[in-house]
């Protein structure tokens, strides 16, 4: 698995600064150091989006039309700036909850059903935070659903693939694989030596118990399994891709009787920074996504 697949491309970070122009409950765009909020009139829901590993709020905005489509449908969007995370500590999860709750409280969004969405490592953050909220309903964030876009959820799977790729004939692939191996070993050790650490820190593992906490939420898994592109551009097999692991995750969610989880495999949609790339925000059909969000708002009961 290449770092490009796992983390996306490095962009110049455009920090969000400044004070709101008008009162928080009015429509407009508001900025804080941790987030950027796009608020329509009378919002029906709140969509919280998490960027890829080396991306930021600006990248989320430019690489997808989700913000524009959401605004036109009466859905507020909170673009989070947290990045460079494929797992989170308990203290980081608590800090993230406080940041989101502050945005909700300051802009009178307490009654808005909440949905999380994340691209690549941002998908890891979304899943970890959703599971944290399932265990801590006192946080007061009414999460109803989440969607993830080609995330590397199973860290043991990521590690094993990267170990194999350290000997890849493509020098770039091999070097990126070594970087990921170093990151995981420095942070978590080797999975064969510290399986309990990987079980605790991975958003998802092959243990079906790891998906039980997602059952209260509507769940969507997006991926574009373009095996020809990955083989020709990266020299990778299907079994190495996030797409393969998401297919396994779909089966896990079915085994624990998740009521609504859906795997969405797209074709030919992926464009990243103007170039063909199946690992991209753009694989999500933003109109169909908003149909799902608003359908869940009307049909499902919020989780406290």
Describe the structure.
The strands form two sheets. Strands 1-2-4-3-5-6-7-8 form an eight-stranded mixed beta sheet, sandwiched between helices. Strands 9-10 form a two-stranded antiparallel ribbon. It is 40% helix and 16% strand. It has one domain (3-152, 203-297): 3-Layer(aba) Sandwich (Rossmann fold). It is globular, with a radius of gyration of 18 Å. It contains eleven helices and ten strands. With 304 residues, it is an alpha/beta fold. Strand 5 (114-119), helix 5 and strand 6 (143-149) form a beta-alpha-beta unit.
Would you identify the CATH H-level superfamily?
Alpha/Beta hydrolase fold, catalytic domain
How does the helix and strand content classify structurally?
Answer: alpha/beta
CATH C-level: Alpha Beta
- What is the average per-residue confidence, as pLDDT, rounded to a whole number? 90
The biggest beta sheet is recorded as:
8 strands, mixed
Strand arrangement, largest sheet? 1-2-4-3-5-6-7-8
- The percent range for strand residues is 15-25%
Quote the distance from N terminus to C terminus.
Answer: 37 Å
Low-confidence parts: 1-5, 7-24
Under the CATH scheme, the architecture is 3-Layer(aba) Sandwich
Got a strand count? 10
Note the total helix count: 11
CATH fold-level topology: Rossmann fold
What's the Cα radius of gyration?
18 Å
* Count of folded domains: 1
N-to-C SSE series? HEEEHHEHEHEHHHEHHEEEH
What coarse outline follows from CA principal-axis ratios?
A: globular
Helical amount among residues, as a percent range? 40-55%
């Amino acid at each position: 698995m290449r770092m490009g697949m796992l983390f996306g491309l490095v962009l110049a970070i455009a920090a969000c600064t400044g004070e709101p122009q008008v009162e928080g409950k009015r429509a407009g765009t508001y900025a804080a150091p941790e987030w950027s909020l796009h608020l329509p009139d009378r919002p029906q829901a709140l969509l919280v989006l998490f960027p890829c590993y080396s991306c930021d709020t600006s990248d989320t905005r430019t690489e997808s039309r989700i913000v524009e489509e959401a605004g036109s449908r009466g859905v507020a969007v909170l673009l989070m700036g947290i990045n460079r995370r494929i797992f989170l500590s308990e203290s980081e999860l608590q800090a993230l909850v406080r940041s989101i709750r502050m945005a909700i409280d300051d802009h009178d969004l307490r009654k808005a059903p909440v949905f999380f969405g994340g691209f690549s490592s941002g998908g890891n953050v979304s899943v970890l935070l959703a599971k944290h909220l399932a265990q801590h309903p006192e946080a007061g964030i009414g999460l109803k659903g989440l969607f993830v876009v080609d995330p590397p959820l199973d860290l043991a799977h990521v590690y094993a693939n990267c170990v194999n790729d350290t000997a890849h004939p493509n020098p770039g692939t091999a070097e990126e694989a070594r970087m990921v191996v170093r990151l995981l070993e420095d942070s978590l050790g080797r999975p064969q030596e510290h399986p309990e650490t990987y079980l605790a820190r991975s958003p998802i593992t092959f243990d079906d118990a790891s998906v039980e906490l997602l059952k209260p939420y509507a769940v969507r898994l997006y991926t574009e399994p373009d095996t020809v592109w990955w083989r020709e551009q990266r020299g990778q097999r299907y079994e190495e891709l996030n797409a393969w692991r998401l297919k396994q995750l779909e089966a896990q969610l079915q085994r624990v009787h998740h009521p609504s989880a859906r795997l969405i495999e797209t074709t030919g949609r992926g464009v990243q920074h103007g170039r063909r790339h199946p690992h991209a925000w753009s694989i999500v059909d933003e109109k169909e996504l908003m149909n799902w969000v608003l359908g869940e708002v009307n049909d499902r009961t919020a989780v406290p």
